[in-house]
Amino acid sequence: MPLRPAGTPALTYTGQKKSRQDVVAAVVNIDVGTQDLQQCADAVIRLRAEYVFSHDPNQIHFRLTTGYDFWFSDYVAGRTFRVEGETIRPASRPAQLLTHAALASYLVPTFGYAGTLSLSRDLRPVALASVQPGDVLIHGGRPGHAVLVVDVAAHPVTGQHYLLLAQSYMPAQSIHVLKNIDEPRLGAWFALDPQAEVVSTPEWDFGSQELARF
Predict the structure, then answer these.
(1) DSSP secondary-structure letter at 19?
(2) Residues 90 and 152 in one domain
(3) pTM of the full structure
(4) Which of 1, 15, 73, 103 has its CB surrounded by the most CB atoms within 10 Å?
(5) Which of 74, 97, 120 is where one domain is finished?
(6) DSSP helix/strand/coil, 181
(7) pLDDT (tens digit, 9 = 90+) per residue, 60-75?
(8) Rounded Cα gap, residues 62 and 73, in angstroms
(9) Cα angle 64-67-70, degrees, rounded to a multiple of 5
(10) Residue 16 lies inside a defined structural domain of this protein
(11) 94 and 156 both lie in a single domain
């Protein structure tokens, strides 16, 4: 996906600057919305949904925190859900054409009722040594966090792997590529130690077992 011009600040959904601009290497050219919805797990859901939409929109679905499997194909056909207390119940809505605007509409309730906990249940764990672009560092919970692996590089001589990472955070804010503030010489790349017990990112430390894949 394209980036906004170099030096563009990461903004929250209110238009204010993210408090930690020091962790921002670049800002992804994608909207954040006008509500406090597209936070960390939601940014991963957004990018996954955009990716699947470009291949086969009928395969887009995410489980909500309650376990309800919410399909985009159902949503555009007029089948959605309503929330009663802690219970999800079927509901109807006007049918829509299968468009990108419909996807944006579908993502609003998805962001509202899915999160790191539900997303972590949907993903399958993978070993750090097997990391690929599209994998997710995720800690499910309240609070929790999720960071997307957007690229992986390997040194041609040493075999050392490096990760390019992107995230949103709280409150909802621009999806941004992370800057390595602990090792500034690496810019936006993070050296991966497959034997490490902790994978450190600027605003969250993940356990070595918290890498997962769609």
Answers:
(1) S
(2) no
(3) 0.95
(4) 103
(5) 120
(6) coil
(7) 999 999 999 999 999 9
(8) 12
(9) 50
(10) no
(11) no
Per-residue pLDDT tens over the stretch 6-56: 999 999 999 999 999 999 999 999 999 999 999 999 999 999 999 999 999
Coil, helix or strand for 123?
coil
Same domain, 116 and 145: no
Q: Which of 57, 61, 63, 68 is nearest to 97 (CA)?
A: 57
DSSP SS3 for 171? coil
Structure tokens at 184: 């500034």
- Are residue 137 and residue 70 in the same domain, yes or no? no
Q: Are residues 115 and 130 in the same domain?
A: no
Residue pair 137/196 in contact (Cβ under 8 Å)? The answer is: no
Of 97, 120, 143, the one marking the end of a domain is 120
CA 63 to centroid of chain Cα atoms: 14
State the pLDDT at residue 12. 98
Residue holding tokens 């992804």? 28
Residues 189 and 144 in one domain: yes
Measured at the CA of 139, the angle between CA 106 and CA 66, to 5 degrees, comes to 45
Tell me the CA distances in angstroms from 128 to 131, 205, 211, one per residue in order. 5, 14, 7
Domain that holds residue 104: 34-120
Q: 174 with 143, same domain?
A: yes
